[in-house]
Every structure is written in C-alpha cells, then in structure tokens.
Write a structure and sequence with these properties.
The protein is α+β, with helices and mostly antiparallel strands. The protein folds into two domains: 79-211, no CATH class; 213-316, no CATH class. The protein has helices at 3-11, 24-68, 129-133, 136-147, 166-170, 203-206, 256-261, 264-268, 272-276, 289-293; strands spanning 88-89, 107-108, 116-123, 157-162, 175-182, 214-215, 238-247, 279-285, 298-306. The longest helix has 45 residues, at 24-68.
Length: 316
C-alpha cells in the first residue's frame, strides 16, 4: 500500500491494526538522509556560485589593468620641412667633428640652454656633403649678418652647416641648415662650444656682452693652449677690442720685432680717453701651429686691460 492509500484509509475510519507497522526509527533515518542530501545539494550549489564569483573577482583586476594600461605608442611623424630661421638646437658638442653632417639633435626654445641657432636653410637638388659645402661662403656671410657683426669687428662666432637626419632624408628631405655658434675659446673648436640661453640675432650691436670675448686667463703670444673665454657680464681681466690682425703668406713664424711692427691696429683701437682712464692694449699672436693649420696665416687678437691690474667692469 502506498502512502496515498494509507492516508485515505485512515481518513475513512478503516481498521488499521492489519496495516503494516511504521518503523519510526527507519523513517527518521530516511528523513535525516533526505535532509542531508538536500543540504549537500545546497552546499554544492553555493560552492559553485562562490567559485564563479571568485573567478569573476579574480579576473576583474586583470581586466582593469588591461583597460588602464597605455595603448601602444605610435612613433612621432618625421618632419621633413627645413627648420625656420631662429630655431635653436641642443647639439652635443662632442658630436661636432668634421665628419658630422646628418644632425638629428632636438630643437629647444632659445630661452633654454642650447649650442646652435639656425640662420637660414637652403634647398638642395640632392642632400650631399659636396652640395652643402658649395654654400659655405654664403653661410658664413649670412651668419655674420645674423649676429650683427661687420667685417671690421672680430667676435668669436662661427658658422656650421648640417644636412637633414638620415630618417628625414629617407622621407625626401633635401636641404642644408646654416647655424651660428659662439666659441668658448680662441682657435674655434666646435667640440668645446658651451651652451647658452637667448638668441644671438643682432647681439653684437644689441647685447654685445652676450657674444663678446673676455677672459680672466693670463695671455701670451705664441701660446699653444687656447685662451678660454669668461662671462663678459662679470668683472674680467681682459676684454677683446674687436680688432683682429691677419698676416698671410708666411713661411715661418715671424720674429718679435716684426710682430711688434704689425700691431698698429691694436694700438690704434685704444682711444685717448681710455688711455687716460688707465687702459692699455696688447696683441696676442697665435702659436706656430697656426701657420700649418691656416695655410701660412697668423692672426693677432687685440686685448684691452687695466694697467693697475684691477679687473675691467662688466660689459653693458
């Protein structure tokens, strides 16, 4: 008799003594087993939910990391246009050897430390060193005009030329850049250029102290070591007059008496008023090696100083 029949017989008042006796202990055991199975199923379902949630939570940081991570960096486009007049560059001076032509140095604001400043650029039908060198005389003239110097003044500027970088040339750039540099010592050596701030355009006439040659070093004619320049905005021992004497076609180094006879331009650079104020001038001739390096030419630089050995005041 199934459970439904048993229930119906009891409700109808039938005799129940002939019915099978219920085994209460067995029923309780079955109930406990049923509840246990039910609890196990619930616990299993909860474990599955927890595992799913844990997996989801563990995956979230990785997902967030991927979402927050920067995307791949795209390379900056290569600019093939020639630089504008007045562009300043932070070129490492150690790179400025005779063989350095293809410049990839960064542009910087002229208010920041820099070593070179662009005067002009010239288009080339082909960006080769030979084609660039043909424009060297033009570059020198334009650099001199740019700084505000004339042929009668000596200021320690020089011109350097550069072709586009290799990557620019690969994309069709074909020009040469003419830059002006201010030397840090006599016997212009590009590898010794010192970084400066501010533009040098018209500096000779507008801000001469920015580009003039001054020194606190002892100076002597024929010295092999270069004279290092100091800041003309500060007191200094010697100050260039802006005059330069050039002797050409020499076969050997001139004797002292000949050099004294040639120093007239330096002597005449000093005014009577300056002499009254205790100023004097001396001519410092380059070393014998200059004859070899400059095809038989020797230069004399005029330096102004005080006869009482006191420093000269800062230049305005």
């Amino acid at each position: 008799m199934d459970t439904h029949d048993l229930t119906r017989t009891m409700l109808d008042g039938e005799e129940t003594q002939d019915l099978p006796r219920l085994d209460v202990a067995r029923v309780r055991a079955l109930g406990v087993r049923h509840r246990r199975n039910r609890h196990l199923k619930i616990a299993g379902a909860i474990a599955v939910i927890v595992a799913v949630l844990a997996g989801t939570l563990l995956a979230i940081p990785a997902f967030v990391d991927r979402a927050d991570a920067p995307g791949p960096v795209k390379p900056a486009p290569v600019n093939t246009q020639p630089p504008a007049r007045g562009t300043c560059w932070q070129v490492d001076p150690s790179r400025l050897t005779r063989s350095y032509w293809f410049d990839d140095s960064p542009k910087v604001p002229c208010s920041h430390p820099h070593t070179l400043e662009t005067v002009l650029t010239y288009d080339l039908h082909e960006p080769t060193v030979a084609n660039a060198q043909e424009l060297a005389p033009v570059c020198l003239t334009q650099a001199r005009i740019y700084v505000g110097s004339d042929l009668a003044d000596w200021v320690p500027w020089n011109a350097l030329m550069f072709l586009p970088s290799r990557s620019q040339m690969a994309r069709g750039a074909s020009w040469v850049r003419c830059d002006v540099a201010i030397a840090s010592q006599t016997g212009f050596d590009p590898t010794t250029i010192a970084a400066r701030t501010g533009s040098v355009k018209d500096a000779v006439t507008e801000n001469p102290a920015d580009v003039w040659a001054c020194t606190n070093q002892s100076i002597h004619s024929g010295a092999a070591r270069p004279t290092h320049f100091s800041d003309c905005h500060q007191p200094h021992r010697y100050e260039a007059t802006g005059n330069l004497i050039v002797l050409q076609g020499l076969k050997s180094y001139p004797p002292s008496r000949q050099l004294v006879a040639e120093q007239g331009p330096c002597t005449r650079s000093l005014t009577s008023e300056q002499r009254t104020e205790g100023l004097a001038v001396k001519t410092i001739w380059g070393p014998p090696s200059d004859l070899r390096d400059n095809d038989g030419s020797l230069t004399g630089l005029c330096w102004r100083y005080r006869t009482d050995a006191k420093p000269l005041p800062p230049m305005p």
